[in-house]
Design brief:
The chain has 134 residues and is of the alpha+beta class. It folds into 2 domains: 30 residues; 90 residues, Lipocalin (Beta Barrel), CATH 2.40.128.270. The protein has 2 helices and 8 strands, in the order H-E-H-E-E-E-E-E-E-E. An 8-stranded antiparallel beta barrel has the order 1-2-3-4-5-6-7-8. The radius of gyration is 22 Å and the shape is globular.
């Protein structure tokens, strides 16, 4: 191929190279740059709480409370607990078994079981069950 013809293809080669680099960066498994699992990115309504150490009245009040968590694609979350709202950042491991949440400089890692329609968070003997808000 003649040099003049190669110059015509040089910009195309650069674009292809740039696309390959972007693809590799997007597929990185580095947890600090990885977008969280799309499954968790949804609005979740609390449906049940299990706390063996809580008395039955407190447990009934918690289960009756209106609690909503929304996890977003940008690794942030918002919550609304009976009208009290807050925000934070989160990450979830590849398997969907560990959810790390950071709010006001405090970080907590919670065991999770994640499916398309349910989210179960547990720490010790306490469990919170959520379903996707429809």
């Amino acid at each position: 191929m003649h040099y003049t013809n190669m110059k015509k293809f040089a910009p195309l080669g650069f674009v292809v190279f740039a696309c390959i680099l972007l693809f590799i960066a997007a597929c990185s498994t580095n947890p600090t740059t990885r977008v969280p699992s799309a499954t968790i990115c949804n609005s979740w309504k609390l449906t049940n709480v299990e706390m063996p150490e809580a008395d039955s009245l407190a447990l009934a009040q918690i289960n009756a409370a209106d609690v909503m968590y929304t996890f977003k694609n940008d690794s942030s979350y918002i919550y609304d607990i009976q009208g009290t709202t807050g925000t934070g950042a989160f990450s979830i491991n590849e398997e969907g078994t560990l959810l790390t949440m950071t709010e006001n400089g405090q970080t907590e890692t919670i065991h999770s079981v994640l499916s398309d329609t349910s989210l179960i968070l547990s720490k010790g003997s306490e469990k919170m069950m959520f379903t996707v808000k429809k």
